[in-house]
From TrEMBL:
Catalysis: reaction(s): precorrin-5 + S-adenosyl-L-methionine + H2O = precorrin-6A + acetate + S-adenosyl-L-homocysteine + 2 H(+)
Pathway: Cofactor biosynthesis; adenosylcobalamin biosynthesis
Protein name: Precorrin-6A synthase [deacetylating]
Family annotation (NCBIfam families): CobF
GO biological process, any: methylation
Class of this enzyme: transferase
Entry GO MF terms: precorrin-6A synthase (deacetylating) activity
SUPFAM superfamilies reported for this sequence: Tetrapyrrole methylase
Domain Tetrapyrrole methylase: 3-223
Record-listed E.C. numbers: 2.1.1.152
Amino acid sequence: MRKILIIGVGAGDPAQITIQAIEALNRADVFFIPDKGAEKSGLRQQRLKICDRYLKSAAHRFVEYKTPSRAKTPDYKADVAAWHEAIAATFEALFARELTEDQCGAFLVWGDPALYDSTLRIVETLHARGAVTFDYEIIPGISSVQALAAQHKIALNRIGEPVHITTGRKLRENVPENADSVVVMLDGEESFAALDDEDLEIFWGANIGCPEQALASGRLGDVKDRIKELRAKVRAAAGWVMDVYLLRKPMR
Ligand SMILES: C[S@@+](CC[C@H](N)C(=O)[O-])C[C@H]1O[C@@H](n2cnc3c(N)ncnc32)[C@H](O)[C@@H]1O
């Protein structure tokens, strides 16, 4: 039966990959590589670098596919559902066309596949649909959240306290009131800069693990302008920027 491997490859540093992931890379006959346009071509290069470094033989193929883009109407959930359906159709065609019955295809997922990535959900839907039969495995990876904590030498949670992981879009709707520590991902709009509580502590990182990595931390009101500058610098240097940050209330 066809096999699909969803391999977490870490969030930028090619050394942050597990032995299990390296073994999985070497089982794949075909790598499905998304082509997400110019800005994301830096990410594509990172994925290819990982393959270069860890693949032991040349007995594999790379198949690029165009990722459909998401409509941006006020109905975010409907847009995402339609977008996922379009990606599912793309994946289904790829599996049928590019893999023989006994071959193995792989997706290299940025960070960990369990955190803000749709690959797992889409593959699960196709598996249940059964139009193309296959089995699949998930190989965990080091997420950008773990990489952030390591770079700042911090624990994400305070002793015995919870951690809330959310997106920039959700943070703009409201700051979770009962969360001591909040990790924010997918924030292309610098939502931290608009928060009322400037006494929050922030631990921020962009393109962590990549050559252009930038880090900053401190009282939000004191460092937010510096973070905006660093963010722009990273984007100019790399051609893309992804950032993640932890916000927490100061210790009393
Ligand atoms: C689509 S999500 C994927 C998250 C990924 N699955 C993970 O485990 O980190 C993309 C978001 O992850 C964060 N991210 C991923 N790689 C990053 C990096 N190297 N540095 C900073 N943030 C990163 C950013 O918040 C970005 O908007």
